[in-house]
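Quality-control log, excerpt.
Job 1 of 2 completed; input and output follow.
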Amino acid sequence: MKDLEIDIQNDIVIVKVSPNLTQYDYMEMRGYFTSNYFAKQKVKIIIDCEKVLDLPSIAFGVFSTLARDARRIGGDTKLVHVAVQLKKIMSRTHIDKQINILNTIAEAIQSF
C-alpha cells in the first residue's frame, strides 16, 4: 500500500486519501486500520477526500467496511471534503446511509 498521510489528534485518526491510490491500495487499507488502530481501540476515523475527484469502486466498499468495523467497537468513521460527483454516487448506492459525509475536518471532529 502506498503511504497514507495520517495525523492523530487526541484520539481521532485523520487520513488523507491520495488520488494515486490503486484498487489494491484500498484493499490493503482495511487491514492496515484493523491492525494499527482498531486493535488499539482508536476507532474515531476521519477520511479526508479533498484531493480525490474519482474513486475506484473498491474504495466505497472499504469506506463502508471501516465504518461498520469502527461502530462494532464503539467508534465511528466520517468522510470529509467529498467531491459532488462522488456524493451523488454514494447517495445512489446508499453508502451515505452507512458512513457520515461532512464538509470539513472541524465539523467531523465536533460530530464525534
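Job 2 of 2 completed; input and output follow.
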Amino acid sequence: MDLESIRKDFHALSEGLIYLDNAATTLTPKPVIDALTSYYAYYRANPLRSIHLAARKAEDKLNEARHTCANFINASEKEIVFTRNTTEGLNMVANGLNLGEYGGNIVVTALEHHSNLLPWMRKCYKEGRELRIVFPKRSDGVITVDDVAEKIDEETLLVAFTHVSNVLGTILPVEDIVKVAHEHNTYTVLDAAQSVPHMKLDVKRLGVDFLALSGHKICGPTGSGILYIRDTCFDKVEPVFVGGGSIVDVETTHFTYAEPPSKFEAGTIAYCEAMALADALKYVSQIGFDNILSHDKKLIRLAHELIGDIKGLEIYGPSPNDKTSLLAFNINGLDPSEVAMILDSTSGIEVRSGHLCAQVCTKRVLGQPNGIVRVSSYFYNTEGEITKLADTIKHIVDTMVL
C-alpha cells in the first residue's frame, strides 16, 4: 500500500492535520469529491421520474451505483435500499417490521450505539414487549455468543447487535449469533457502521436479515447509506415513508406498492450521494481490505505499545488482536473532553471524547460517568502520527496528573 500516494488524495492531511476521529466520520478523498461535483454538474436530473436524456443518464448512474453497492456486500440489487445513514436504516426496520401481536422480547447488547438501542427501546415500549440487554461478562468488554444465547428464548422476536463497538472496537461473533437466533426463528439486525470501513462484508456469509451502514464512515459523502433487507423479509417490512416512486398504482381508496427496493425509497432520494458512495466503495476496494486490516493492526499495536504503560492512564477494551483500530482511554483526574481539547490545541490531534452516543456502554459497562477519550485511525494515518499522539499524552500526564 502506497501510503504517501494515498495521503495526497486527502486535502485535509496536507494542512498538517492529525485526524484520529475516523470512527465518527472518515475523510473524503479527492476522487470521490470530484465524482460528487460531477454528478451535480452533469447528472442533475431526477432519475426514475422523467424520460428525457438527462434523467435517463442519471438513472443509469444510479443503477450502476446500486450494482456496485450490492456487489460490495454480496447482495442482490433489489436488496439494497439507499438511505441517509445507518440511523435511518435501523429506524426503518424498527418502525416498519411487523413482529406480530404484543408481547415477546427483543435482544440488544450493552455495546450498542444509541441508533441501534433507542429504536428498539421505543418499539418495545409502544408494542408492549420486553427489551433484554446483553452485558459483557469479560472485563475487556468482549461479548461472546454464549452471552447473547442466554438472553434468547422461544419468546425472542428479534436480535439487534453491532458488528463492531464504536466505543471499544470489540468485534462481535456475527455468524455465531445469527445461527443461534435463527434456530429460534428470530430476526437479526446488524449495525455495520463501524465494521464496513475495516473489513469485507458478505451478507450471505454473515446470514443476517437486515444490515445498515453509513457512507461517511467509509470515505463517502454524508447523507448516504445502505439498508440491506434480505429478500425473504420484503413482505415483513411496511415502508416508513410513502409517496412518489414507491408505488405503481393509486386509486381513491387504495394504492399498490412498487417492487423493492423502490417500495422503500419514497420521494427523490439523495441519488448524487448514493452515486458518490459507490465511488467511495470502489476507492476503498482498490486499496484492499487485506491492506487496510494489516495497517489497522500495525497502528493499534503501536498505540498500545507506546501508551499502554503510562501511569495514570487507563485503557479500555480488548487487546489489539481482538478489535479494530480504536483506542479508548482516560487519564486519571482529567475530564475526557479536557484531554481531547488539549490534544487538539497543543498538537493538532483530533480525537473524540464523551459518551460517543453509547451511554449504556460508557456508563454501565465501563463505569465512566463522563465518558472516555477515543482514538480511531484509518488507512491514511501514519506511525508518526501515533507516535506524536503518545508523546502528547505523556506530556499531559507528566504536567497535569498529580
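Post-run check on job 2. The two ends are 43 Å apart (CA to CA).
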